[in-house]
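User: Can you fold this complex?
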Amino acid sequence: MAKILVAEDDAHVMRLMAMWLKRSGHEVVEAPNGQDAKALIEAGGVQFLVTDINMPHCDGIELVQWLRGEFASDIPVIMLSARCDQAQIGEKLNSQRVSVHPKPFSPSRLSNEIETTLAELTTVQGISEAG
Amino acid sequence: MTDYMPVGAGEGEYLSDTSHNKIKAALASLRGTVATKQQGLGAHVDEAIGCVQSELDLVLSEHAGMADDLLRAYEQLGIVFEVTSRLSSADDPEDVVRLFVESLSITYQDMELFSAESADNDALVWAPRLPEGAAHYAAIVHACVESRRAVVEKFETPTFGIAEIMAAPVFAGDEFVCAIVFANSGKARRFDASDMSLIDALVSVCGDLLRNYQLAASLRAFSMDTVKALVSAVDQKDQYTSGHSNRVGRYAKLLAAEIGMTGHRLQMLEWAALLHDVGKIGIRDDVLKKPGKLTDEEFEHIKEHPVRSYDVVKEIPQMSEALGGVRHHHEKYNGKGYPDGLAGEDIPLDARIILVADVFDALTTTRSYRKSFSFDKALAIIAEEAGTVGDPKLVPIFERVIRREVAARRIQISPWTGPNGSSPGDCEEAGS
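Assistant: Here's the predicted assembly.
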């Protein structure tokens, strides 16, 4: 259970994604573009970002670069894209710990990855706190 | 964890919370305004709003239903992509089935999923994640094998928490390989026709891939048999060396496997060991079969055979990695061998392995110029010559593995005494 920000400009994909993630027990905040997503992240509390790449006013790549760079946050990011150059995108964001998935997204694989990442994160935090 | 809910279960869940609340609020405020301004219209307004409300609910539930269908379609598309791309990276048939079951388990994570194998379609051996009591459901596996497609059986009263079972058969050509079995608790959702068509399509991809592996394996076996037939024809040029190449192939493979060679690498070593003497086809019979000592000229002629073997094998592009072993199998560790006088680690590993195996077989069989040595004597000679002829690191390993195999009766060393009880000669050229 986490607060997940979904940045997606296509309304119906956004609704589907939000519906699916809520069913999986997460809290979902929605941003129709990268600019709004930044504002929501700055407002605080976002634990996970699921973002599209092609969006108006600041695309997914810029958003992630801002998130990792200027905002210096290491929350997990899953990027979904219908673009053909996914390998290059993956390479470009290689050092940014972003996993890139093709669209249409496979719901169970998406939630599976979110759960796994969150579980790993909890373990790591547990270890570093214990140490 | 992430179960599908029945269609339309979450009230207005397709709509975002904000939009849903806005509509509710608008309707409420409309009712308030109208009711205050127009006394007596309250009942009509209530009725109208009721109509709008139920119409809205209907639309929302239709949307949620469509959203569910879309999610299912996305999911199924996702698994088709994943299965096809993951399966192509499989190394062997077991890997194919394992990866297949793994990929399916993500989509069907709320179910028990396992593969059931059968040697003869009769006795089913149930594989790893066997839900308790699943043996009762063997019938459905037989049913899917019979019909050659996915079959679903629903149980009126769930047993061991299983409400229904889907089984789909994987066939490689006409051969039944295993059934993929899904045991569904029914808590999240029930199987439908789309699950069956999806699984049918996927098991057929899996089966085709397994069939390809079988074909490749049978081609490999065919090539191996052809090569064995060819080398035994060469060995038969000289009655004393009958079966020599096959035995060297076996000994070399044992030694190579012992030092950790596997897969393709081991396969290439075996090819090289089998073919090391194929060039003897070009050596004159009178020299090859000559009893007693060879003249210098004759010996030079015999020494051509590794290069002749090399020339034969280099015509086969798939065997390029076997060339080193073939060409250099007479190079001695001290550098005094032939054809290139390589020494120590400069001699390809495959050639050093073949040399030990070759010398061992030569010593334990009778040749035209001498009788065979006993098993222990042969090993003693090889040990004595370690560092001069054989690789000193390989020799002790060879001794260990060959003693173990003989003790376990997996191989038999039965010295053959030759046709006319030929007289013992020197063993200087053992291994030619």
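The first strand of chain B starts at residue 112 and ends at 118. The radius of gyration of chain B is 37 Å.
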